[in-house]
Amino acid sequence: MSENISAFTSKEYDMKIKQTLPYYDEFYQQVIDLVKSCNLNALHWLDVGCGTGKMAEIAFENIGVEKFTFCDCSSEMLEIAKERFPYPNTEFILCDIQELTNSNEYDVITAIQVNHYLQKEERRKAVQNCYQSLRENGIFISFENFAPFSELGKNIYLEKWKLYQMEQGKTAAESDEHISRYNQNYFPITLTEHLKLLRDCKFRVVEILWISNMQVGIWGMK
Question: Which residues does the UniProt record annotate as the domain Methyltransferase (predicted)?
Answer without folding.
Answer: 46-138
